[in-house]
Amino acid sequence: MRVDVQGLTVRYGSVTAVDDMSFSLSGNKIYGLLGRNGSGKTSLMSALAGYRKPAGSVLLDGEPVFENAAAMRQVCLVRHMSDAAGKGDKVSHVLEYGAAWRDTWDNAYALELTDLLGISLKTKVGALSLGQGSALGVVVGLASRSPLTMLDESHVGMDTPTRYAFYDALLNDFMAHPRTIIISTHLIEELASLLEEVVIIDSGRLVLQEEADVLRSRGTEVTGNASDVDEFTLGLTVLGEKSLGRTKAAMVYGTLDDSQLIRARQLGLELGPIALQDLFVHLTEPVGGKR
Q1: Helical H segments across 54-176, by residue range
Q2: What is the pLDDT confidence band of residue 210, given thresholds at 50, 70 and 90?
Q3: Which candidate, 174, 130, 169, places its Cα nearest to that of 153?
Q4: Coil, strand or helix: which one is 81?
Q5: Most exposed of 42, 107, 210, 268 (fewest Cβ within 10 Å)?
Q6: pTM
């Protein structure tokens, strides 16, 4: 499903959560929606799901989503299970609701996921731990097989084995059933290998939209003799440095040209990729220590 956002603004009284944002997602990819706390991620997802009337436009496959029942049925936004089920509902009831609400629902897959993620069908939603509630949200999101599936911090409270089981299930199901999946997360490195494209927002504004591999190529870790590293990085944007004895590693932002690559070889420096999370921190760094 294609997503087109033009001039989108979301306000809560005097607070602007999304500020004149425009971008397009071609669809059938796994997108990472990255931003610091309070950057506007949840408000943006709510607008994409048609939960609020937009100032600007949100189109899904060319159709406005707000007050469009046909378009909204193509969207699944998972935030908290309390949004979709009462505390007295059993997990089995949640799956029944999914089957009733969504034509694309795959109940056999939902049962497979509950078993994989260790969720008992007989347990009441109110008795689930935070991590189990998040895992149930993942079940709903993936089993919905919605053309636009959005998972907003869906990993919260999950232990590490459960998170990695979720990541494997997400990738395998996407490969079998391609669709547009948007994931907001703070665990950037854990999910980095799954993301084909990233959308970075800050203070309600679009900072960058880029293919994940292209973004990674903008950063380089330079390692070698400290004095050689200092010479090489002079005048470059240095994100951070680490030293051990006479050896230094510096993270630099920006594509290196041929002359710089030649100079690195002459100095005997090792060049390698840097983490997507380090690039994200740099791109959303407050100016002058203030936001």
Answers
A1: 69-72, 91-101, 107-116, 130-143, 160-176
A2: very high
A3: 130
A4: helix
A5: 268
A6: 0.88
